Amino acid sequence: MLDKILGKNDKDNNGLDLRKKDKDPGMDVSDRIKNMVSKASNGSKDQINKIKSKSNSNGDEDDKGAKRKIPRPMPKPRPRDTGNARLKSLQKPPEDKKPDGIGGILPGFGRRMPGGGGGSAGGGGPDEDQRTLVGALVFGLILIVLVGAGYYFLVYAPYQGTLNDAKQSQINLVNTYYVGPLATDPEAQTLLSEIESAVTPAQASAVDVIGPATTSWQAYQNQQVNTLKDNYSRVQVNYNNSGTQQTIIMKVSDAQQLISQSDAAVLSNMVITTPNTVAIPLILTRLQAAGGVINVGDAVDIYLNSNGTTAVQSANQTNQSGSTQSSGSTQSSGSTPIVSGATVLALLRSESDSGTISANLTEAQSIAENQISTSSSTSQSSDTDVDQLLRAAASNTWDPTTINALLDNYGYNLNNLERVSNLGDLNAQYLVILEIPQQNAMTVIQNMNSLQLVVPTESAPTWMATELHQIYG
Length: 473
What we know:
alpha+beta, five-stranded antiparallel sheet, 16 helices, 12 strands, rod-shaped
C-alpha cells in the first residue's frame, strides 16, 4: 500500500501520469506527507478513510492511480504567529464583546480593561467603578433637569408673568393717555422704552406715566383755549360725564383754571372748540324758571323732567277704506343735565297781575299832654299801571330817563322782594331767553314743557352766595 502511495509501480501503471517530469519524486513524497499531516491536524479523517476504502475495493484501479497525483484540498489559512501562541492555552476564552458603553451612548462603559481583570469576584473592579461613575453622572443629570424645571415653573415663570403684567399695565396707561393729538408725542416713545427696559415689576410700576401725560395735555389744551376763543373770550368745552357727552361754555380764565386743576385722565377726554351758540326763548312757570329768582347773566343748567314726555305722531294713508296711525313717545331723563352753563340773556315776568299798582299807605299819630292833644297823619297812595308808563316812555310823552330810573330792574326787584318777604305770586310765568349750544337747540325746543332750570351753587348768584355764607359761615 505504501508503494502505491509512493508511486513506485510505474511499469504496471498504464494510466496517465499528471506529475511534472522535471520535479523530483522525493519532493512529491514530502509534500504528500505534509498534506496528510495537515489533514490530520485539522480533523480530516473522513478524507483518509475514503482513500483507504477506495484503494481496497479497486486494486487495479489503485495500481493505475498510484501514478496519478491526488488533488490536494485547499489548505485553510493559518493565523499569523505573533509569538503569543504558547500563551493562548493559558488565557481564558474571550467573552462576547459588549457594546461600547450603555447601548453605545456612554463611551467607555462596559469596556474591559487591559489584562482581562475585573468582575464581581474581584470585589470592585474597573467595570464596576465605571458603572458607578456612569450611574452618578446619570443621576446628576436627572437631578439638574428636575431642579431646572422646578425653578422655571415655580420661580422664573411666575416672576416673568408678574413682570409682564406690570409692563402691560403701564403700556395700557400710555396708550390710554397718549391718544388723539398726542398719539405721535415723542414722550410716549420715551415712556414705552423705559417700561420695556425694566427688569423687575417694581421698576416697571415706578415709571411715571400720568405726570408727563398731564403736562403734555395741559400744554396742548391751553394752546387750544388761546386759539379757539371767540370774540367774547369764551370757549366751549365738551367732555364725557359718566358716558354722557356734556357741553359747557365758560370764560377763557375759567377754562385755564379748569385745565390747570385737571390731570391726564380728564384732559384726554376733553375737547375744546369755538362756541357755536344760539339764543332760544322759553316760556316757563315760576317753578320751572328756578323760582323766578334768577337774573340776567346767571348761569343755569337745563334738566329734562322725567315726568314729561314728548309725543311725535305721524299718519300714513294706506288705502281708501281705512288709515293706520302710529304714535310714539320718547322720554329722556337722567342725573346729568342736557345743557350745562346756559347763560340767561333776558328775563321777563308776565304783566297780567304784576303791571298794575294800586297801593295806599296811611300813617296817623296822636299826642295828648295836659289835656292838650295833637294829632297828625300821613298817607301815601299809588295807583299806577306799569304797562301804561312803559308806553308813555316809549312814545316820549314822558321823559324816558325818568321812567327808566323808576322801572329799572322792576321785575327782578319784585321777585327779590317776594323772596325776602316770603310772599309772592306763585302763578306768575316767565319768558327766559337762554344762550345754549346749537347742537342742543332742537332737544330744548321739543321738550320745552318738560324743562327745569337749575342754578348750580358753584356759580351761584350774589344773593344765593350771601345766603350760603350766612348759613355755613
